[in-house]
Amino acid sequence: MTSAVPRPARAPLVRLLLRLAVVAAVTESGYLHAKLYVNGYRFIPHIGVMFLIQAAVSFAVAALLLVADEPVLQLMAAGTALGALGGFVLSRTVGVWGFTERGFQPHPDALVSVLVEAAALALLLAGALWTWRGRPRR
Amino acid sequence: MDEQNPADTGGKTGPEGMSRRQLMRHAGWFGGAVVLTVAGGEVISHVAHEHDKAAAAADDPHALRFVQVSDSHIGFEGPANTDVTGSFENAVGRINSLGFRPDFVMHTGDLTHLSTPAQFDQVKQMLSTVRTERVFVVPGEHDSVGDHGKAYRRAFGANTSGDGWYSFDTHGVHFLALVNTLSLEAFGHLGTEQIDFVRKDLAGLSSDTPVVVFSHIPLFAMYPAWGWTTDDSLQVISMLRRFSSVTCLNGHVHQLFTKTEGNITFHSATTTAYPLPKPGQAPKPVPQVLPAGRLKDALGLRSVSYREGDNALAVKEERLT
Question: Membrane among the record's keywords (chain A) (predicted)?
Answer without folding.
Answer: yes
